[in-house]
Amino acid sequence: VQLQASGGGAVQAGGSLRLSCAASGRTFSSYAMGWFRQAPGKEREFVASISWGGGSTYYADSVKGRFTISRDNAKNTLYLQMNSLQPEDTAVYYCAAARIPFRDIATMIKVDYWGQGTEVTVSS
Are 78 and 98 in contact (CB under 8 A)? Predict the structure, then answer.
């Protein structure tokens, strides 16, 4: 599986962005998927994950209620809708795929594939 993230950009605080992660291959629907981010000078951190069928989701406390993860298996695409963006959301965002329970993606230990990252900058 190859992952291609897109949709990043520069927005003002309070704005919205939608990230996409396009996956190649015919096995996308067999993977749990996740979004992570890495701010300058900080370690990569978990943002959200979703089960292979899309029916279950899991969020980091810092984004709960503002971000929504979703997927369209027919289009082999993962999404992250980000609302009420704040300067602390500034980071490079990465998508990831793993054949493990979707909550376990948060540990990053058994991620099978990573996307290349898309940059999000939120100004105050």
Answer: no
pLDDT digits (tens, 9 = 90+) for 11-63: 999 999 999 999 997 789 999 999 999 999 999 999 999 999 999 999 999 99
Task: Say if residues 121 and 11 touch (Cβ distance below 8 Å).
Answer: yes
Query: And the tokens for 32?
Result: 């749990």
How many CB atoms neighbour CB 25 within 10 A?
A: 13
Residue 46 and residue 104 in contact, taking contact as beta carbons nearer than 8 Å: no
Amino acid (one-letter) located at 86: Q
Asked if residue 47 lies in contact with residue 9, where contact means CB atoms within 8 angstroms, the answer is: no
Give the C-alpha distances (Å, rounded to integers) separating 47 from 25, 80, 105.
24, 10, 10
Q: How many residues does the chain have?
A: 124
d(C-alpha 86, C-alpha 76), whole Å = 29
CB 13 within 8 A of CB 123: yes
Predicted confidence at residue 26, as pLDDT, reads: 74
Residues paired with 18 in a beta bridge: 81
